[in-house]
Amino acid sequence: MNFKEVKTQASSQWEAMQDSDKIRILIGMGTCGRAAGAEDVLAALNQKLAEQHIQAEILQVGCIGLCYAEPLIELVKPSKPSIFYGNLTPELVSEIIEDYLIADNPRPDLALGTRGEGTLEGIPRLFDLPVLKPQVRISLRNCGNIDPENINHYIANGGYEGLAKALKMNPQEVLDEVKKSGLRGRGGAGFPTGVKWQFCHDAPGDIKYVICNADEGDPGAFMDRALLEGDPHAVLEGILIGAYAIGATEGYIYIRAEYPLAIQRLRIALEQMKKCGLLGKNIMNSGFEFHIKIKEGAGAFVCGEETALMASIEGNRGMPRSRPPFPAQSGLWGKPTNINNVETWSNISAILQRGAKWYASYGTEKSKGTKNFSLAGKVVRTGLVEVPMGITLRQIVNDIGGGVPEGKRLKAVQTGGPSGGFIPANLLDLPVDYESLAQAGAIMGSGGMVVMDEDTCMVDMTKFFLTFTQAESCGKCIPCRWGTKQMLDILEDISSGRGRPDDIELLQELAESVKDNSLCGLGQTAPNPVLTSIRYFRDEYEEHIVKKRCSALHCQALISYYILPDKCEGCMICARNCPVQAIEGGKRMVHVIDQDKCIKCGTCLDVCPSKFNAVVKVSGEPVAVPEKPVPVTVEV
Q1: Antiparallel, parallel or unpaired: β 583-584 and 592-593
Q2: What is the mean pLDDT of residues 205-216?
Q3: Type and span of the H or E element at 220
Q4: Please, which residues bridge with residue 210 across strands?
């Protein structure tokens, strides 16, 4: 069957499903949905439909990006706009079936929004909601809309048309189209994709490779995982286009083994491609041959670096090597190799489908297109977002994310994963593009974005990220191996009350040295949290060192717990729950915490009855309390 016949069949099936009189239910079954309880919701859904003898088609789709609203379903009744319902439980989904499918009450109180022609009273349109209205979905265009395990759904929505178009062009024309789009690598470095491809295309050699880097290891990042779970064919199509342009006949998807669902859906997609003549020999009767293998990584963060990744594929320890030669000249098994990440490949398929000019109409002069971010941390609406380059941090955090919860003040936004930088609240109007973030001392990275509120200690947060990068250092080069360890030791001293006045300057000196002299991107970017936290939050370092105080009350060695004599009722609850018996006092006696025994666990604060609030957590100056238990004077 040729591609034209495959497309005709897929489109026919898709149109039949859209025009069917049967009820259709789409349920988000990505990892985020499953973690939130989607499997229980699906079981309750099936049970209720069977009990009510309702015929319905259920599609398991990927994440639409509204992770804060998972578990989530889209319910489609014939001739009516579809309705999205979020934050579901088995009980709620049972209610919705009875109220909407049987009684025709759409339950506006539970609905998130509608999609399709027409409106329903009391329910807004989904893509008019603040969380979705500023977004432009290119990479994520199909996520949440199609069954990722059904290739016909992808093909019916324009899938593999970009490949078909590319195969009618010569390789250089494809390269020129990618260059004109202005696409830059979405893996973090932001190098122009078309230029990178050109290097590999021009390199001499009969055997060339392309690799998809799906080794997403940043804490708080889940962009690549969600994309592979929700629309694997968009990535695979991009890989085929790149392979044709470069002249490669074999490719690898290097993906962390901790992504079992993404791996499962990739394997299914590859088998479907083979059956449709989209993988193997003579693809689309063009004479182009290409094969893809999946390589599961063991979770080493350093294998996100392209030379370490290739070493891992070759069966060696994942350690980077010096460059040149660059992978485009000598990569996998010494052959010319091109590596791009998941998001980059998914954009390629869209660019070839709709054209470079269309893609370049989004973004800024130097940063074209859109960027995916995993919005996490202290923000109301966490999730996966895709926004045009040049949008401000304020728009992402406040408009899309809904701002900081509980009315607290935003303190900083960290972009670029553990190797990224902290951007303070006073720079919220900073445009999100490669150049602007670099000027602020941060990086785009693969797209992790963590929001921090006023309760965050920047010294502690810097220590957290540096702990990660130090542990993940492969140890090959001395600047990274020892430099990250020395920086972490200094941070440990500062957060433990042992900081010295010259520690800040020493930290800066070490950070710059590690940045300038490390072998690979891990070491070169690991100091970013140190440098940006000192640059924007130096006062917190000085407070920790000079005053031995942590205003955010996070650094355990600098905090103390006290029981206020004018509030303690002598109920003995705190004393009974203290794990180290550090609290003295009998019934109707004001209790006293032995500071030498106290392990700063906070149990006393947690268990003290709210009507008393007798326990306080402080940092810096001690609180005046009795040295020994005394009789209670509080009237209860």
Answers
A1: antiparallel
A2: 96
A3: none
A4: 251, 338
73: left (phi over 0), alpha (psi -120 to 50) or beta: beta
pLDDT of amino acid 635:
54
Q: How many CB atoms are closer than 10 A to CB 512?
A: 14
Question: 117 pLDDT band (50/70/90 cuts)?
Answer: confident
Entry pTM: 0.94
Where are the extended beta strands (E) located within 68-225?
73-76, 82-85, 111-115, 209-214
User: How far apart are the C-alpha atoms of 374 and 139, rounded to whole Å?
Assistant: 14
For the segment 296-325, what is each residue's pLDDT rounded down to a tens digit?
999 899 999 999 999 999 999 999 999 899
**Residues 368, 181 contacting (CB under 8 angstroms):** yes
Report the chain's mean pLDDT, rounded to a whole number: 95
The band of 218, judged by pLDDT with boundaries at 50, 70 and 90, is: confident
Burial 154-163 (b: 16+ CB within 10 A, else e): bbbbbbbbbb
| Euclidean distance between CA atoms 328 and 343, whole angstroms | 20
Which helix (H) or strand (E) segment holds residue 276: the answer is none
Query: Rounded to an integer, what distance in angstroms lies between the CA atom of residue 373 and that of residue 597?
Result: 45
Q: Which amino acid is at 392?
A: T
Q: Is the pLDDT of residue 636 over 70?
A: no
User: pLDDT value at position 612?
Assistant: 93
What pLDDT shows up at residue 634? Answer: 54
Q: Give the C-alpha distances (Å, rounded to integers) separating 301 from 182, 305, 330, 523, 574.
A: 28, 8, 23, 12, 43
Cα–Cα distance, 390 to 437 (Å, whole number) = 10
Q: What are phi and psi of 294, to 5 degrees?
A: -105, 130
Comparing C-alpha atoms, which of 58, 71, 59, 57 is closest to residue 112? 71
Distance CA 481, CA 520 (A): 12
Residue 46 has pLDDT above 70, yes or no: yes
Contact 140, 386 (CB under 8 A): yes
SS (H, E, C) 459-519: HHHHHHHHHHHHHHCCCCCHHHHHHHHHHHHHHHHHHCCCCCCCHHHHHHHHHHHHHHHCC
Q: How far is it, in rounded angstroms, from Cα 30 to Cα 485?
A: 37
Q: How many CB atoms lie within 10 A of CB 181?
A: 25
Q: Which helix (H) or strand (E) holds 186?
A: none
CA within 13 Å, CB half, 311:
16
The answer to whether the beta carbons of residues 588 and 604 sit under 8 Å apart is no
What distance in Å separates the CA atoms of residue 13 and residue 156, rounded to the nearest whole number?
Answer: 8
CA distance 229 to 30: 6
Confidence at residue 506, expressed as pLDDT on a 0 to 100 scale? 97
Q: Quick one: tokens of 547?
A: 């005053």
Alpha carbon of 283 to those of 105, 240, 280, 288, 325: distances in Å?
50, 10, 7, 5, 32
Q: Which distant-in-sequence residues (6+ apart) come within 8 Å of 118 by Cβ? A: 80, 81
Q: Dihedral (C-alpha) 234, 238, 239, 245: value to the nearest 10 degrees?
A: 160
- Both tokens of 231, joined, read 């629309």
Classify each residue of 440-467 as buried b or exposed e, where b means 16 or more C-beta atoms within 10 Å of its C-beta.
Answer: bbbbbbbbbbbbbbeebbbbbbbbebbe
**Helices 503-517, 528-542: crossing angle, 10 deg rounding:** 180
User: Torsions phi, psi of 226, nearest 5?
Assistant: -65, -35
- Nearest in space to 177 (alpha carbons), one of 234, 241, 236, 239: 241
Question: Beta-strand (E) ranges in 523-575?
Answer: 559-563
Sign of the dihedral defined by the CA atoms of residues 182, 183, 184, 188, in that order: positive
Tally the C-alpha atoms within 13 A of residue 608's C-alpha that lie toward its C-beta: 22
Confidence of residue 213 (pLDDT cuts 50, 70, 90): very high
Mean pLDDT of 127-138: 96
Alpha carbon of residue 222 to chain centroid: 3
